[in-house]
From TrEMBL, chains A, B:
Taxonomic superkingdom: Bacteria
Record keyword Signal present: no
Family statement drawn from the similarity comment of this UniProt entry: Belongs to the HMG-CoA lyase family.
Protein name (record): Hydroxymethylglutaryl-CoA lyase
Short name of one Pfam family: HMGL-like
Keywords: Lyase, Metal-binding
Annotated Pyruvate carboxyltransferase domain residues: 7-271
InterPro entries reported for this sequence: Aldolase_TIM (IPR013785), HMGL (IPR043594), PYR_CT (IPR000891)
Coiled-coil parts of chain: none
Record-level Gene Ontology MF annotations: lyase activity
Length: 296, 296
């Protein structure tokens, strides 16, 4: 089995996780969470989102969170930014990396961004341009890369075309999102091949259909070296269809350890952190590793 | 990705699933369950166990279940049998296939069978010999093929030696069990290679650490064409460490469908069956696909 020697875990629990939890977590708890994730060895930790608080009230405290969070040397704290207004707020908070989020389908672009696909590029282009001019790194997410709840299976060529538009703006990385979790391993490898290989690609899988880790293995076999994951599986509950169902970082780390792939994360410290956060949210973590390793 | 064209799903929900559920299910419900599994297209359905009822009270109704179950043409209904006494009972019930269950480690042989590894072979040998003489097919399970709670990591050579002993008795298939779910994809491929390839091997993964489906993908890539799985993930609850955590048949079927691998199972009928059984057990199915596809 051909596999990379080292993988970068792009930790999304504090943003993609908490924005999909019902509970609104106090800003001090979020700051402690970010500190614990860094203590556990994670070096890329998406901190929050500058989407308008009307849409994501869970992360309305973005500026305050960045103000009170001690940012560690050697750790990246990207933040989600939808547009120029969000970029302004992110710049005021002194961020060094932003992430934009596009859609691979017309329907989801309308539903999530209230724009056509062409209009989403028009919104992102000046945002990315200004961010790069300010010396920021810019990452791009692409949603609905495998299936779309309204459009069904999404053609690989359509995903590649949309992803290239974002990369050509100057994004350093494109994270291919299986937003509804329907993709399977062969589809993953087909999509990566259609991009001409893994260069500048990351993967972002949801476990809605139980496929997230198998799909990750397929992506690693295709040479991908950045994997998005959420500490404790934050943002998803196995008993709710509406769940985002992010791949749990601990389950990923367990597999990487077994495969002898370096990642830099201390599993015990991460499990302790996820147990701590689960207590704050008042429900158990859906991560299998966290469940198996939790003190009883 | 090199993959088999067709996979046989060896359905263990009625036996391995129900024997690990707290609730004791009425025999009529079990019979209906077996009928529904066959209706859904499963052709190998482990029905029950002739282990002494003292050890597995959940399946004390084995003889009665086989008496009232309509056995469909073209469907195999293997039953678990530990020894000659169990074989006698199975023969009285007119079974055509039995499964024996050995351990790859000394400690688990002692804990599960109250025997040393050598003594387990001595127990199985006359059982298998008599079963074969009676025209039955015999399958062998091998437990603790990856890790053991008392002994830690289990050396591949030790597993191969134990597995060969069972195959040499005349078992048509050896199911490699990751009883505590700690194995990862590379270990799976290493073990299959150590057996000299996938011939006569099946795999039996538990999702305790979230690895079951990724490990299955790795086994398919190594050429394995029989995969054990449990309808609705019966026998495991994601919120309990003690959970067996069998791979859910539905999650496996979703992956096989995506990979274009034939299996003969009607996913919708299977999900309906697992929802029905979850209602009887009074708790939701841990299968992600069942959760995503359940009527709300």
């Amino acid at each position: 089995m051909e596999l990379p020697q080292r993988v970068t875990i792009y930790e999304v629990g504090a943003r993609d996780g908490l924005q999909n939890e019902e509970a609104i977590v106090p800003v001090e708890v979020k700051a402690e969470f970010l500190g614990r994730l860094a203590d556990a060895g994670l070096t890329t930790i998406e901190a929050t989102s500058f989407v308008h608080p009307k849409w994501v009230p869970q992360l309305a405290d973005a500026a305050r969170l960045l103000e009170i969070t001690e940012r560690r040397p050697g750790v990246n704290y990207p933040v989600l930014v939808p547009n120029e207004r969000g970029l302004d707020r992110a710049l005021e908070s002194g961020v060094e990396e932003i992430a934009i989020f596009g859609s691979a389908t017309e329907t989801f672009a309308r539903k999530n961004l209230n724009r056509s696909m062409d209009e989403q590029y028009a919104m992102f282009a000046p945002t990315v341009e200004r961010a790069l001019a300010a010396g920021l790194r810019v990452r791009a997410y692409l949603s609905m890369c495998f299936g779309d709840p309204w459009e069904g299976a999404v053609p690989v060529g359509q995903v590649v075309a949309a992803g290239r538009r974002l990369l050509e703006m100057g994004c350093y990385q494109l994270s291919l999102g299986d937003t509804i979790g329907v993709g399977t391993a062969g589809h993953v490898q087909e999509l990566i091949a259609a991009f001409g290989g893994p260069s500048r690609l990351a993967v972002h899988f949801h476990d809605t259909y139980g496929q997230a880790l198998a799909n990750t293995l397929a992506a690693l076999q295709s040479g991908v070296t950045t994997v998005d994951a959420s500490a404790g599986g934050l943002g998803g509950c196995p008993y709710a269809e509406s769940a985002t169902g992010n791949l749990a970082t601990e389950d990923l780390v367990w597999m990487l350890d077994g495969l002898g792939i370096e990642h830099g994360v201390d599993l015990d410290a991460l499990v302790t952190t996820s147990v701590w956060m689960a207590e704050r949210l008042g429900r158990p973590s859906p991560s299998r590793v966290v469940t198996a390793r939790s003190p009883k």
